[in-house]
Every structure is written in structure tokens, then in C-alpha cells.
Amino acid sequence: MAFQRTDGSIGIRNHVLIMSTVACSNETARRISFVVPKTVFIPNPKGCGQIGEGMEISMRTLVGLACNPNVHSVLLIGLGCESTKSNILVRRIREKTSKRIEVLLIQDEGGVEKTTEKAVILANDLVREMTLENRAECDLSQLLLATNCGGSDATSGLSSNPILGKCSDRLIEIGATVLLGETTELIGTEHILMKRAKNEETRKRLELIIVGLENDLVSLNINFRGVNPGPGNMKGGLSTLEEKALGGISKGGTTTINEVIRYADKPQEKGLIIMDTPGFDIESVTGMVAGGCQICAFTTGRGTPIGNALVPMIKICGNRESIRKMGDHIDFDVSDCISGEQSIEELSEKLYNSLIEVCEGKLTRSEIYGFGEISIYRNSEIWCTHL
Amino acid sequence: MKKIRCLVMSKSDNVATLLEEAKLGDCIDYLDLDMKNQNLFVLENVDQYHKVAIEDIYRNQVIIKYGEVIGKASTIIRKGEWVHVHNLNSIKTTD
User: Fold this and answer.
1) Which residues have C-beta within 8 Å of that of residue A385, sequence separation ≥ 6?
2) CB contact under 8 A, B50 and A237
3) Alpha-carbon distance A297 to nearest alpha carbon in chain B (angstroms)
4) Tell me, what's the ipTM?
5) What is the mean pLDDT of residues A10-20?
6) Dihedral over alpha carbons A65, A69, A70, A71 (to 10 degrees)
């Protein structure tokens, strides 16, 4: 049961999104969201002073976030003179979705107070419309699952990742889509992934992003030997880069890789998709959510409390010690697989059911905490380098 | 004699990953290619989450975990021996 959208996609949440187009309008937008509690707020740490590819990645991500199927409607708050031009944003969003988009610019409206007054009235109207929508029987094959691992340890590759991998396979079997990313963590497995590529073009793109990144790191004199796996990883049982990376990619399952896409792009294919994202978790998940993922499965060994503003993030952990010490943000405990009390198969069956429950409305711990981290990946900037 | 639990991630693996610490002489058991129970004795102390060879491995032979190559043996490894950075080299991060 989910929210059927007019373009055929399904939302498993129904958010009224207040999004700031530039850092200068963040505080105004934040205040509006505070006054209208049933809204979700996404600030923009930049939106200006960006050039070239960095600007395009930003725009593409903002458009993608607004278009995400979990979003019912959008209220954009901007300043008026920023690089992230709201009319271009709206045009690009309109090309992809017919949901309601409202825009208010502080300079046009005449200041903070007038903007806030108008925005609160608009936001309340959007919320009223949102509450009228009901869930209906939906096609699960419209689901896109974002996968990520963070705070990994020795248990990640032995329990949480393989267990999530079985769920990924199962979702792909029913026609849904699973995204695997964090290109830094794919280094060491490119020969395996390339063999699983659907066609020559996909194979070449895999090589381009993984080997390309590795070559970039080498040319910057960043050498992996002794660094990845690091001393902590080795103490925890990981002997080689290949072994560590294999533990990571197991969360994507075993099926054919159908497409390789850019950060924040929407996949054109179904099944297993590789998105080129950085290793930093919050940026990586943000990119996948901008690409249309409605739900995120996040494996962790050491624990991390992050959430996402638009999608529920299910935390999966196989380290009983971590859960005992700081398990308040863990949704799914797979440590029974390490202790032998349950098998990988049994736990993946339960995780799958848990995923469906979350799709149907059950809140994750990070949602209950109200944590909604968003971070847009930025290409390196050129300023302030000469001193 | 304590039975040590381990995980063999795929049928073609030639190493098992220990789920608990093992001492010299402990027995580990696992399921082989035909889903039959096999056991072997650990030839030295091995820490939790570290690997043990489940068959004899020759120098330069590939080590398989998750059904994939994780590196090459740098020396001969006997069934039951600890497999780690001292006898296993990455193929990826070697010149």
C-alpha cells in the first residue's frame, strides 16, 4: 500500500517539502517549516558561488529531490539573485513531474516577514491537500532501494551486507530496482562487476568510473597498500582490498548490472544499477534519493545515527556489542547470524518483510528521531588555493 | 573439545571465516560443496573473524572467498592454518 503518483511511480511517504534554493534563504525557510510542522525542510549549504560541473550537479540533485516520489508537493524559498535560478529549477522539475510546485523569493516578496506570511499560508494549503491522499494497492516493482554501508567493521561483510544482498536479489526478482554506489568502495572488485555487466557499454562505464577513480587517486600519490584495508580492518580479519570490497558489494546481490549512472541521475533501467557516488555516506544517499529511491537500507558495524529528509533509512547491524552499547538507532539486528542462532537465509527473509513494513508506513528509528541529513556532493572548487 | 563456528560464504571458497576465536587443536565444522558436514582441526591460534584454510593451498594459488578471488597464497598453506597478510597477498595492490 503506497501513494500512486500520476507518472506511474509510487511514494511510500507523502512529504510536503520546503526547499531552500540558496544558503541565504535557509533560515527563512527553516522558520516557515517550524511554523508548519507537517512539512519537511531541506536547507541548501550553497546555491551560489558555484561554477561549472559543481553547479550542474547541484541543480540536478535539487531537481531530483523535488521530483522524488515520496514528495507530494514543493515550496521553494529563494532569495532572488542566487546562481540556482528558481525559474530554471521549476522548469526542469516541470519536465519530469506534474506535482504542485510553489516558489517565493525573499527579494520579490519584500523581506523575511512578508515571505514568511505568504509561505505559511501556502504551506498549510499544501499540507491540507497532502492529508487528503490515501494509500492504495501498488505495484512493488516501482520500488527503488538505495543501499549504503557506513561505519563498517568485520561483521559487515559476514552478516549485514550478505543478508541485505539476498533481499536485493529478491526485490530485483519481483521487478524492482536496487542502487549500489560509493565508487571508492568498489575499487578492487571491478573485474567481478564488469563480468556481470549487461552489455559492452555498461562494462565500459564501470571500468571508467572505478578504474578512472583509482588512477586519479594514484596520480595524486595516494597509495592503497597498507592504507586500505587499514590496520583496524586487518586486526578485524580483512586481509586484502579485494576481500574488503567484496564484503561491501555483496549488499547489492548477485544479479546483472543493468546500468551505470551519474550522481543524482534517474535510472532508465530496472534491476541492479550502479550510481557513481562518493564514499561519504550522506552525500551518497542524497544522490540516490535524488535519483528516485524511496527507501534506503544502510548496513553498519560500528553504528551511525543518520537519517534522510525524504526517505526512511533502515539501519542493519551485525555487531552485538555495538547494538548493546549504542543500539538506539539500529532498526534491524542481524547479530544472530554471527552467534549462529539464525542463518543468513532466515534473517534475509525477516529483513525483506521488515522492508515491506517500512514501505507500508512503519517508521524507522531515524524517522522517529526526526533526523533528515541531506548533503549534495560538490566537485572540488577552485578558490583560495594560492597561499 | 570445543566446536568453533565459522562461515563459508560460497561453495567454491577454500577458506572459512571464524565467528569466534579458535585455539590450536579446536575443531571447526562447515558445509561443503555437496552440503555435507565437514570438519577440520585448527593448526594454530586464530582470532575471531579471521580466516582458516579448509584445504591445502599451494604457493601462488588463488584464495577464494565469497566465490571470488581475494588474493594469492605467497607460500604453501596447509588445511587448518591461519590465512592472513603473512601468507596472502592482494593481487590488486601489488606492483
Assistant:
1) none
2) yes
3) 21
4) 0.94
5) 97
6) 60
